[in-house]
Specification:
There is one protein chain. The chain is an all-alpha fold. It has one domain. It is 68% helix and 0% strand. The chain has four helices and no strands. The protein starts with 19 loop residues before the first helix and ends with a helix.
Length: 139
């Protein structure tokens, strides 16, 4: 049937039928959303580190007398470094990866919220959810 089973709905007032595997699916979706968010944040940190590195490189070139950067002030060198980094293949790859992980986290979180909401409507308690562990990443 796929990752998310079909949920049948009873008569109004009796609440939806939520199977245990659907609750596990909600927990898995929540953990996956957390994992994807962490990965997106890591991509963002790498992008910023690359940007800072390129800015430092441009400033170093300017201080060593590179004619392309001669006569530029610090703000202009920062702008040039940022543009050079943003146009690089590595920066674009990191940005795409960050966007993909962010979209995936939002989708997984939406599934988890939906299934959790159905669980709450059924009158059954929702167990606490812990974050994804490194052991989960190895699978």
């Amino acid at each position: 049937m796929g990752r998310h089973s079909v949920i049948s709905i009873r008569r109004p007032g009796s609440g939806p039928v939520v199977a245990a595997d659907q609750l596990r699916s909600a927990i898995d979706d929540f953990r996956e959303a957390q994992y994807c968010r962490r990965r997106a944040e890591e991509c963002q940190r790498q992008w910023e580190a690359g940007r800072e590195s390129e800015i430092d490189h441009v400033k170093e070139l300017a201080h060593t007398g590179d004619r392309r950067f001669r006569g530029r002030n610090d703000r202009e060198l920062t702008t040039i470094g940022t543009i050079r980094w943003a146009q690089s293949t590595q920066a674009q790859r990191l940005r795409r990866r960050e966007e993909r992980y962010t979209r995936r986290a939002m989708l997984d979180l939406a599934f988890a919220r939906f299934l959790t909401h159905l669980q709450e409507l059924s009158g059954e308690g929702v167990p606490p959810v812990t974050g994804r562990t490194e052991a989960d990443d190895a699978r």
